[in-house]
Structures are given as structure tokens and as C-alpha cells.
Design a protein that fits this description.
about 230 residues; alpha/beta; 5-stranded parallel beta sheet; 12 helices; elongated
Length: about 230
């Protein structure tokens, strides 16, 4: 199976996570939570490619929580209830810590679908982490929103994007041994628009459609990335 570069480079620990220092840096909003034994239900609000899914997975790993994931695009009340039932059965796997339920694009859930989460979130049988690209104040029902902390994720800045490029070239198992040099990165950074997934996808496209040695400049990126 051909795993995309963005997936291969997904951080395995919070130390590898790039960006969102206002949340997980020394004075970050999530830092006291990471240092404590608690993990509240929360909504992660930010543009695509800013690390919402990765952060949820790493929080589950850090807190030793069983991790369940649903996408609001293809899940309904039935799927939610099945997951909640599983969560009840597996809640004791990690020292009686409640499992973590991650719901991607939670803003796409209807009111009834969001309502079906309330009981489990309120009684603590699951810890909910919802990810959304839309303002949760308008897209998440008040009853659920009032039970969650809201954290905002920002688009990645130039230095963070450049760090991702460097990490990929030096650490990815499939490209680190290839002859690749980035002479200019302006076009790569521009097409990414602060989105880590777009950045790494563009880099991979340029590499896969070029012959070694590969010298990446703006003209080459614009030629390969439509």
C-alpha cells in the first residue's frame, strides 16, 4: 500500500509535533492539562492541515486512553451508539480512564447526532474531542458546547512549514536517501497556505514526477503542481 508522505510524517509524539505552540508550548493552553491527570472534552477548531487529528491521537497516547475515531461525513446515530457501547466495555483497559472519542468534522453532525453524545460526555464514560473547520459557536449545539473546552489551531507559519520540509527530506524512509535539494521554497509555501498536508503532498508530487538529482525551485513546483 502506498502511504502518502503526509501520513508517513505524522508525528509519533508531542515532541515531534510542529506548530500550535500557544496550545502545547511551555505556556500553552493545553500544557497544564498535559501535566495533570485530567483530560476534558474539547473542540479543536482550525483550518485543514493544522494538526487537529494528530493532536487528538497524541493526547490519547499521552494520557493512555483507548482511542476511537469517527468521521461526521459517513457516521450516523447508529455508529455513534455502537462506539459508545464499545467505550463502555473498554473503559477499564487503561486504569479506569475513560476512552477518547475523536469526531472529525463534528460540525457536519445534525442536532440529533450531537444530542446522542450528550449522555456519555456528561457522565464521563467517554472524553470527546471534536474537530471542526467551522466556528463551533454556530455549528455545535449549546448543550454539547457547554461541556467542552474550545481550542483554536492556527495555520502553520513559514518557519514551521520549512521545518516540516526539512523533516521530510531528512527523516522520511522513502525520500531521505534520494538526491534532493530545495533551492527555493516560496512556491511550496504559497501553495500550502499554512496547511501541512498540502505542503507535504505538493513536495511528494514534485519528487515523484521528477528524476534525480532533483533541485526544487519555484519554477519546478509551479510546473508540477496545478
Amino acid at each position: 500500500m502506498n502511504i502518502p508522505l503526509a501520513e508517513r510524517m505524522r508525528p509519533k509524539s508531542l515532541e515531534e509535533y510542529v506548530g500550535q505552540e500557544h496550545l502545547i508550548g511551555p505556556k500553552g493552553g493545553l500544557t497544564p492539562i498535559l501535566q495533570s491527570g485530567n483530560l476534558p472534552s474539547m473542540i479543536l477548531w482550525g483550518p485543514p492541515g493544522t494538526g487537529k487529528t494528530t493532536l487528538a491521537r497524541l493526547l490519547a497516547l499521552q494520557k493512555e486512553r483507548h482511542f476511537y475515531q469517527l468521521s461526521a461525513i459517513n457516521s450516523g446515530v447508529k455508529e455513534i451508539r455502537e462506539i459508545l457501547q464499545k467505550a463502555d466495555q473498554t473503559g477499564g483497559l487503561f486504569s479506569n480512564k475513560s476512552p477518547l472519542l475523536f469526531i472529525d468534522e463534528i460540525h457536519r453532525f445534525s442536532k440529533s447526532q450531537q444530542d446522542s453524545l450528550l449522555g456519555a460526555v456528561e457522565n464521563g464514560s467517554v472524553t470527546l474531542i471534536g474537530a471542526t473547520t467551522e466556528n463551533p459557536s454556530f455549528e455545535v449545539i449549546n448543550a454539547l458546547l457547554s461541556r467542552c473546552q474550545v481550542y483554536v489551531l492556527n495555520p502553520l507559519n513559514k518557519l514551521q512549514l520549512q521545518k516540516l520540509l526539512s523533516n521530510a527530506l531528512h527523516h522520511d524512509v522513502e525520500i531521505k536517501n534520494k538526491k534532493i535539494e530545495i533551492l527555493e521554497d516560496d512556491a511550496l509555501l504559497k501553495v500550502s497556505r499554512g496547511d501541512a498536508r498540502k505542503l507535504l503532498s505538493a513536495l511528494e508530487l514534485v519528487i515523484n514526477s521528477s528524476t534525480e538529482p532533483i533541485k526544487i525551485n519555484n519554477a519546478l513546483v509551479l510546473e508540477k503542481v496545478q
